[in-house]
Amino acid sequence: MGFSTDAIHAGVHPDPTTGSVMTPIYQTSTYVYESPGRHRGYDYARTVNPTRSALEENLKVLEGGRAAYAFASGMAAISAVMTLLKSGDHVVVSRNVYGGTYRLFARVLEDYGLTFSYVDTSSIETVEAALRKNTRMVYVETPTNPIMILTDIGAVAALCRSKNLISVVDNTFLTPCLQRPLDLGAEIVVHSTTKYLNGHSDSVGGAVILARDDHAERVKFVQNSVGAILSPFDSWLVLRGIKTLPLRMRAHDENGAQVARFLEGHPKVERVLYPGLPAHPQRELALRQTRGSGGMISFYLKTAEAAECFFRPLKLCALAESLGGIETLICQPSTMTHASVPEQERRAMGLTDSLVRVSVGCEDLQDILADLERGLAAA
Ligand SMILES: Cc1ncc(COP(=O)(O)O)c(C=O)c1O
Fold this sequence. Notes:
Layout: H1 3-9, H2 50-63, E1 67-71, H3 74-82, E2 90-94, H4 99-107, E3 115-119, H5 124-130, E4 135-141, H6 153-163, E5 166-170, H7 175-178, E6 188-192, E7 206-210, H8 213-226, H9 232-243, H10 245-264, E8 269-273, H11 283-289, E9 296-301, H12 304-311, E10 318-319, E11 329-331, H13 343-349, E12 355-359, H14 365-378
Parallel strand pairs: 2-3, 2-4, 4-5, 5-6, 10-11
Antiparallel strand pairs: 1-7, 6-7, 8-9, 9-12, 11-12
Helix pairs in contact: 1-2, 2-9, 12-14
The protein binds pyridoxal-5'-phosphate (PLP).
Pyridoxal-5'-phosphate (PLP) is lined by residues 73-75, 98, 100-101, 141, 145, 170, 172, 192, 194, 204, 206.
């Protein structure tokens, strides 16, 4: 089926008891057995829940994987993937990954004997040079949050295959609507479903989609063993959100492109980071591996003071962490989403106080532009 058809229908079947067209929220912790040791495939709701299973089937189809598992947050999903590794293993990571991912790696997992190298994964030579004897995984975010650097997924995946390494792509920013890493050869996709997949800023969740049965089996085992599952209600919300994903992503992409052009031409703006602009240094790669650049834009104002003044008069754009909602959200990554990254590392990534990140929503374009103009006039 086409992507929009799959977004609406994959994993969704009329409820066998009532014929309900929409997947019910199976708000139960347990299921009745027919006799000791005999049940209908459902024993306990941490292990399996029909609402969650419907979402997992849907995500599996949209990303083109062999299996998908839904978690209580994006971080829980990423943590589950990291359990494919063992103490002593080394991971090569995109340099400016989401701050929470960096915090998990640097301040939790290093205590369990994993080591990480943060490198510019936009250069395949740099990725290759960072590999060590004990490297087991390459973990990529593309585009990166918030500097919007792209990584050539196909090139990284091919390198990983040739060295027997696990390739992981965080596809939160573009979603399978605009980028399908498994089609490009990656082995695992992770998502914060909190963002575009749910799309309405009213649920926190995560997902792992896998191309290999052995990885899938382990992640499923870990999902049940650790228990950081997505609740039935959140599963239902994400499943509902995904039905409009293609429509929303089209609107995010159209508004994103217009907002990026507006910012690029504005005298108060120093530089715009958006792969959809011809000036983006990786525009050719963007055209090759994505079907649009979506709604995430970062831009530099001239000074940190200008940024401070910029946020004050905004009325429509909500000053908030998170992204990917139907409404426009705006933030200062250095003090908000990426505050957990040490200052020195932030500077090395270009994550200064004059950097602003916008998650362009689906409101009327002229209203978004008018609000940004208000902020820029004050900057
Ligand atoms: C790219 C990316 N990956 C993962 C996460 C973590 O997801 P969650 O907040 O749902 O745990 C985020 C959160 O902002 C993110 O932006």
